[in-house]
Design a protein that fits this description.
Length: about 350
């Protein structure tokens, strides 16, 4: 496995802000696919208000009938009702806001290395379940259509929404397919035993920890037969939570899955998982240790340090895999690997 020597392939300074008064902090966690002989990335573009003396700015969308408007809330930083949670959170009068707001932007490349980012978002908040932003898209093609799952964030938490495109220039929204609190939804590339399948991640705040679940559907809209697939293991790499990555890859050994784990010191890592082709609820193998951990400067130092997070990859001729991953909630990077290497990682466990 080789990190592309010119990483990052997308940086915040390659992205034009959505509007004046905002600055781009991150372009990361990209869904990936191929359309019209181009590699398409759906970037999560995080923006924040430009600094003003004595002011804490929060970007937020307001909704009017069938339209939405981007606004900036401004709080006096000395106001006793204002509290800063972390690098991404602001609380005002016991109401949570995000200091950054994410939309989903298209980046296009003819070679998978050099990308040009569209000037405007493809997916942005258009309903109340997305008021605080749209995040972490994943792509799966069925026929001539690309199905995009993404996270909508609001005061109600986070949901997974679905939209469809043919050209990555416009989308048709299909609504919420997983209710709060649920994210990290990736679709299997074909029906299995007459049904569609998906991995998802409910947020367990009860007796356990956030784990990867699996569900099936007759139509990609109505999901049932929910089952917990794997849980965090008690090791230093994933003892806090886990979640699925990009679409499972069909191989002759089984469904190959890349997933992320959060462990000691809130460090994120990437792992492999292998599921049965005929019954993806059955686990064949699971990697003992991560195949990718934060090591380079762009993976260890940034907006949210020590994070590698993937929800997109493309298969190249001969089984080569271009695996795109976010680092530090800031940049998009490329790991060049192969189906064979990823299988070896999980089967040797």
């Amino acid at each position: 496995m080789i990190r592309y020597q010119k990483n990052p392939v997308v940086r915040p300074d390659m992205v034009i802000p959505t509007t004046s008064g905002l600055e781009v902090l991150g372009a990361f966690n990209a869904g990936a696919s191929i359309c019209n002989n181009q590699i398409i990335l759906l970037l999560r573009v995080a923006e924040r208000c430009m600094a003003e003396p004595g002011v804490i700015g929060v970007p937020i969308y307001r909704f009017h009938d069938n339209s939405s408007t981007l606004e900036i809330l401004r709080f006096n930083e000395e106001d006793p009702d204002v509290h800063l949670k972390d690098t991404r959170g602001v609380v005002y009068k016991n109401v949570d806001y995000l200091s950054t707001l994410s939309t989903i932007r298209v980046a296009r490349s003819s070679d998978g290395f050099n990308f040009k980012v569209d000037n405007h978002p493809l997916i942005f908040p258009q309903k109340t379940s997305e008021q605080y932003g749209c995040e972490d898209a994943r792509i799966q093609k069925f026929g001539d259509e690309f199905y995009i799952t993404y996270t909508g964030v609001s005061k109600d938490g986070w949901v997974t929404n679905l939209c469809i495109t043919r050209d990555f220039k416009s989308v048709v929204r299909k609504g919420t397919i997983f209710c709060p609190l649920n994210k990290d939804v990736s679709l299997f590339p074909e029906k299995i035993n007459g049904r569609y399948w998906a991995l998802h991640r409910p947020h367990n705040t009860g007796f356990g920890k956030p784990s990867i679940w699996i569900s099936s559907s007759p139509n990609l809209l109505d999901w049932g037969e929910h089952k917990c697939l794997i849980r965090p293991r008690n090791n230093k790499w994933e003892n806090l939570k886990i979640g699925g990555g990009g679409a499972p890859i069909k191989t002759d050994k089984g469904w190959l899955v890349v997933y992320h784990g959060k462990g000691d010191n809130s460090v994120y890592h990437l792992f492999t998982l292998l599921l049965d082709l005929e019954n993806p609820c059955n686990i064949i193998a699971r990697g003992d240790a991560p195949f990718l951990s934060p090591e380079t400067e762009y993976e260890t130092n940034g907006f949210f340090p020590n994070v590698v997070f993937s929800n997109g990859h493309v298969e190249r001729p001969g089984g080569e895999i271009f695996l795109y991953y976010g680092a530090c909630d800031e940049t998009t990077n490329l790991l060049i690997t192969s189906v064979e290497e990823l299988l070896e990682d999980v089967i040797s466990a």
